[in-house]
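Quick one - first record:
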Amino acid sequence: MTRLDHGRRATVVLLVLAALVLVPSVAAATFTSRQAVAVTVGTDRMETPTDVTGSYRCALPFFTEGVDVEVDTFTDAGPAGATYDYRLTGPGVDVTVTSTQRSVSMTSGGVPNDLSATHWTLTITSRLGSWTGTPSTHKITCPALRPRSGVL
């Protein structure tokens, strides 16, 4: 190897070293001012439906009894996009309706009349994905052998 080859190689090595030292300093950036960033992190939850408005009617068709329920509306302070499970339970009856609407009509159908007061329960539960809220519960009592209407 000649002196000229050694000189060229030394020059290439020096150029590579200079590039490795100088290029990162050219690309380096510094921040000249600081600013606080306000980040708020929280959680959400499903709310219990409130301010439920509607009515019910205790029915006595022939030798049976039952209840018809009409939910007009309610307030849901939870996240948007919820669906609602409406559940009407009573003696031997369990009726469930799922809807995205805040209104529904339900009927228990006829159950044999036992000649005593009948107790019904309406629950409204909000649901979004796997989240489920606490149910809003409404008790309805139908007197023995008499029709009755009322508000929820």
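second record:
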Amino acid sequence: MVTSEIAVVTSGDPNAESGRSVYVCFIPGAVKRITTYEDFEAEFEKLSEEMQNQFTDDITDAIQQALSATEAANAATEAAQTAAEAANEAAEAAKDYVLGDISEKTVTFETAAQRAGIESGDSLSVAFGKLAKFCADLDQHAFNPLANNLTTNTAGYGLDARQGKTLKTEIDQLNTNIVNIGNQVNTGIYMANDNIDNLLPGNYWVNGYSSSISGDIPFTNMHYMLVSSGTAERSYAQVAIPMDNTAGKKGRIYSGGKWSKWI
């Protein structure tokens, strides 16, 4: 088309709803279509429909994205609730472990090297180690069998408390015997320049270190008690008891006109 040329299309124009349109050439290559009111109205309706469809698609996409976001948020909420429930269960389990029934719980420990009392702040392993040491030491004494006699010499046996009375009775008797011997010594006759073979009945305190005593002397170089018994005229039995317990007692008898050997 040339400048100011007008072209009328009576049918088949793809740019018009009715297929009819008018074109004006301002300069070669610059052609504009003249639109009637009816064409404009049709184009606007067509455009409005496309905009509505596009708007609807955008709204639909936005709604779909909102739904997806809501579902994701719900899933996150459920996950958070699940995690919270798991945390609560773990906390309850920990609480039960610390404060609950410990009848089935185990404790690992080593026996303490030395006895020591349990103190506030000790861990269970330390406390049980101290208890184990006490139990091990007690086992050597507290649970041994007892002997209710003074003749058992089996290792590990303990002496029954009833034997304490028996021992006290025997010790009391020994003390009495010692006192009696002391009384005899204190009341005995001190021998000096005497012949032991010719003593009359009585108790004698003998200085075995003295060279002035004569006769068949039972001990030398020690003090001893001599008990001589018989009739008023002479002795027929003598017993010599060392005072320092370094030798055993000796005795002899007078028979057939002579003394026997000291035995």
